[in-house]
Design brief:
Blueprint: E1 6-14, H1 20-28, E2 36-44, H2 52-57, E3 63-68, H3 74-84, E4 89-93, E5 98-99, H4 103-114, E6 118-120, E7 123-127, H5 133-138, E8 147-148, E9 151-152, E10 159-163, H6 184-194, E11 199-201, E12 207-211, H7 218-239, H8 242-265, H9 270-290
Parallel strand pairs: 1-2, 1-4, 2-3, 6-11, 7-12
Antiparallel strand pairs: 4-10, 5-12, 6-10, 8-9
Length: 306
């Protein structure tokens, strides 16, 4: 008797980014997991359907669906991919990344071996000549999951595989209120974990992401860490009120001061100094998020396409 193929959708959310063509070309070179049926979904988050020509020009050995889902809110695009998914699993990858040929095989193997609802993979940053030495040495742009007490409690969408029928995931959607500021993936996977979903890590399921000149600066990293802190503070505020919220703010303030003091001590050592500075900004952002500070909105703007 024949066994029904395992269906896997690969989702790519895009906003005016030329690198989408390279992403799709790397997906065309994917090794196909055994007995798997693949499909790619491209969700175009621009007001006009600007990505359609690139999608129509792509030559992929699997089905390819184009979805126009305006505009300027990444959560709208992510939810459009979930709404159009017709598979057992959905994988997300960014429109400025390229995947290793064994990427999907390795993500799926980890999902099957662990039974996890979510499997994260690492993102290797590719630095250009304009990136400062401290940034290269400290590898400030690569992405890996954070383990807390031996487990992963949240995740990201730049390299992930999700089991769509899992109780922690079925029917869940990304928060539209976070779709311009970012942090929608942190909130989504944090809720998955809170609902009992297990998050695993496939350390060999690599994707690569070039670091453009506009992001190879301390200022860009600082803005990103501040925004991440704001998101974390907002999530804390949803769970705490009154004295508990004030206590969380005090703790974040103490951590911020400690990090800034460490950065001052480490002034001659740029990698360690900047790491503490960025961590201090993360905690400063958390304080703002706890008390409703207006979040930075990096999405839906022309500069987000670079």
């Amino acid at each position: 008797m024949s066994t029904a193929p395992l269906r896997i959708d690969i989702a790519v959310c895009t906003f005016r980014r030329e690198a989408l063509s390279e992403t799709l070309a790397s997906l065309a070179r994917l090794a196909r997991p055994e007995n798997a049926q693949l499909r790619v979904i491209v969700a175009d988050n621009d007001i006009a359907p600007s990505a359609r020509p690139r999608v129509e020009a792509a030559r992929l050995p699997m089905a390819l669906a184009y979805v126009h889902c305006p505009a300027g809110n990444i959560s709208i695009a992510r939810n459009a991919c979930l709404d159009h998914a017709e598979a057992d699993f959905i994988a997300f990858v960014d429109d400025d990344e390229t995947v290793d040929p064994q990427w999907l095989v390795r993500l799926l193997a980890t999902a099957e071996n662990t039974g996890a609802d979510v499997v994260l993979g690492p993102v290797r940053a590719l630095y250009g000549a304009e990136a400062p030495g401290w940034m290269r040495r400290g590898d400030f742009h690569s992405t890996f999951p954070v383990f807390v007490g031996g487990e992963i409690r949240t995740g990201y969408t730049c390299n992930v595989l999700m089991r769509l029928a899992a109780r922690s995931i079925a029917g869940r959607r990304f928060d539209l209120a976070l779709g311009r500021t970012g942090g929608e993936d942190t909130a989504f996977f944090g809720a998955v974990h809170a609902a009992g979903g297990r998050i695993a890590f496939a350390a060999d399921a690599w994707v690569e992401e070039p670091v453009p000149a506009a992001r190879a600066t301390f200022a860009w990293l600082a803005q990103r860490r501040l925004r991440m802190g704001q998101t974390h503070g907002r999530l804390l505020a949803e769970r705490h009120a009154g004295l508990a919220r004030a206590g969380a703010a005090v703790l974040a303030g103490v951590k911020c001061v400690v990090c800034l003091a460490a950065a001052a001590v480490l002034l001659p050592l740029p990698v360690r100094r900047n790491r503490f500075l960025l961590r201090g900004l993360l905690h400063a952002g958390a304080i703002g998020g706890l008390f409703g500070a207006r979040a930075i909105e990096p999405y839906g703007k022309l500069e987000a396409a670079r």
